[in-house]
Amino acid sequence: MMTYIVFILSVIFVVSFVGFSSKPSPIYGGLVLIVSGGVGCGIIMNFGGSFLGLMVFLIYLGGMLVVFGYTTAMATEQYPEVWVSNTTVMGVFLLGLLMEVMLVLYVLKGEEVGVVFKFSGVGDWAIYDTGDSGVFSEEIMGVAALYSYGAWVVIVTGWSLLVGVLVILEVTRGD
Amino acid sequence: MNPLIFTTILMTVLLGTMIVMMSSHWLMIWIGFEMNLLAIIPILMKKYNPRTMEASTKYFLTQATASMLLMMAIIINLMHSGQWTITKVFNPTASIIMTSALAMKLGLTPFHFWVPEVTQGISLTSGLILLTWQKLAPMSILYQISPSINLNILLTMAVLSILVGGWGGLNQTQLRKIMAYSSIAHMGWMTAVLAYNPTLTMLNMLIYIMMTLTMFMLFIHSSSTTTLSLSHTWNKTPLTTTLILITLLSMGGLPPLSGFMPKWMIIQELTKNNSIILPTLMAIMALLNLYFYMRLTYSTSLTMFPSTNNMKMKWQFETKRITFLPPLIVMSSLLLPLTPMLSILD
């Protein structure tokens, strides 16, 4: 099972995405977002990116999602929608689940799945440890390069965040 | 809106388009598109009523979907070519998805449904920015990937856009919807020649922006958003009626005016490439556009439109100062004799 851990994690990832895409109330959406964030972190860590996985947990789940949870809790309604309360929501969730199950069965049969890229069976998802330089971790070097070679990206992203705050304040201010 | 915040947000719209036009990394282009979209939402919502909010929401949803499709095309391109630089997109799947995404951003058929509704729901100045500045960024990306675009899809979208832009505008009396359908048709003309000679796309974009700028400024000057209100300009500023006549006929592509130049060049370029039926169809369908421009000029400058007596006087608000209106009018009507200068573009 450990060889195919990335495949299993990716299935749980897609299922939780279906869970919040079927639009229950935001509180329940936040719940599956936690699950999908954790599982996504697991996928990244299996590819060797331990720093980025930790970032997902700390910043995304521990910072942004906490703030989201608090604001949603302030703005929630008396009877929030669950997946089983509304026929539409349950129908969409089951449809997404069905499509994922069909895809998984197709993949598990071991044949080639060629949708956009060729992908032959579950073996493609297993991680082989090759190309490791062994001295330094590549993805931490990537993050460090963001602040040296990629300074323009930092400036643009920082400006976008500032303008994002201004835009949100303008839009919700009203008259 | 606080003037400082408004200036910052407007500068971010400009910065977003500049980043799109000047980046060589696909991710930066996507970031530029998102920055542009984020910053133009409060500009569309300047007047705070439910119609502008609905229009900005529609704009946000369609453009966000287009950005997602663009990101998917970028990632498929990355997977098949292994690099992030802007070149022509070698993989056909990525190319088709990217063309569809950029067509959604521009408002080409079959993704044109948001253009009239969004343009109608916002103020005239916001509509001006929407229909002119927002077309620059997607068109520059189309220009850069033009060698690899699937010709069938591009020409189908172009011809259908000219058709929809012509027929859709026929039943309209609201000026903003007329300008929206005119924008759809002009985008169709621009993308038709993209695969053959992209320089003419840029020429058409330039002249289209000048003419649309002129039209919107004339509408802002007479504070009119419907045909009925426009038909009362003879009472307020009689000179504006003549200027509206000239600019509208230029937009329709009539010969001695500068709107004829891009259409002429495009038809010539298409026939040089041995396609005869296509430019004939396009030229015939441009007549539909000309019809509703003519109807506007008929009610505005050529006749005194019937209305009740107490509506004939237009209330004189303070005169708006419109920057650059005289040079714009001159440029959008008298540029045709400068056509031989296009040889410098080679």
UniProtKB/TrEMBL annotation, chain A:
Pfam families referenced in this protein's UniProt entry, alphabetically: Oxidored_q3 (PF00499)
Molecular functions per Gene Ontology: NADH dehydrogenase (ubiquinone) activity
Catalytic activity: a ubiquinone + NADH + 5 H(+)(in) = a ubiquinol + NAD(+) + 4 H(+)(out)
Cellular location(s): Mitochondrion membrane
Top-rank EC class of the record's enzyme: translocase
EC number: 7.1.1.2
Gene Ontology CC entries for this record: mitochondrial membrane
Similarity comment: Belongs to the complex I subunit 6 family.
Protein's UniProt name: NADH-ubiquinone oxidoreductase chain 6
Source organism of the structure: Equus caballus
Source organism phylogeny: Eukaryota, Metazoa, Chordata, Craniata, Vertebrata
Automatic annotation (TrEMBL), chain B:
Membrane topology label: Multi-pass membrane protein
Chain ranges passing through the membrane: 26-45, 57-76, 96-115, 151-171, 202-220, 241-261, 276-294, 322-345
Domain NADH dehydrogenase subunit 2 C-terminal: 290-342
Major subcellular site: mitochondrion
Source organism superkingdom: Eukaryota
Entry EC no(s): 7.1.1.2
Localization per Swiss-Prot or TrEMBL: Mitochondrion inner membrane
Listed InterPro entries: Complex_I_Subunit_2, NADH_DH_su2_C, NADH_UbQ_OxRdtase_chain2, ND/Mrp_TM
Entry keyword annotation includes Membrane: yes
Molecular function as annotated in GO: NADH dehydrogenase (ubiquinone) activity
Catalytic activity: a ubiquinone + NADH + 5 H(+)(in) = a ubiquinol + NAD(+) + 4 H(+)(out)
NADH:quinone oxidoreductase/Mrp antiporter transmembrane domain sequence ranges: 23-285
Pfam families: NADH_dehy_S2_C, Proton_antipo_M
GO cellular component: mitochondrial inner membrane
Annotated signal peptide: none
Gene Ontology process terms (BP): mitochondrial electron transport, NADH to ubiquinone
Keywords: Electron transport, Membrane, Mitochondrion, Mitochondrion inner membrane, NAD, Respiratory chain, Translocase, Transmembrane, Transmembrane helix, Transport, Ubiquinone
Stated role: Core subunit of the mitochondrial membrane respiratory chain NADH dehydrogenase (Complex I) which catalyzes electron transfer from NADH through the respiratory chain, using ubiquinone as an electron acceptor. Essential for the catalytic activity and assembly of complex I.
Subunit structure comment from the entry: Core subunit of respiratory chain NADH dehydrogenase (Complex I) which is composed of 45 different subunits. Interacts with TMEM242.
Family, per entry: Belongs to the complex I subunit 2 family.
Protein name: NADH-ubiquinone oxidoreductase chain 2
Organism: Equus caballus
Gene it is expressed from: ND2
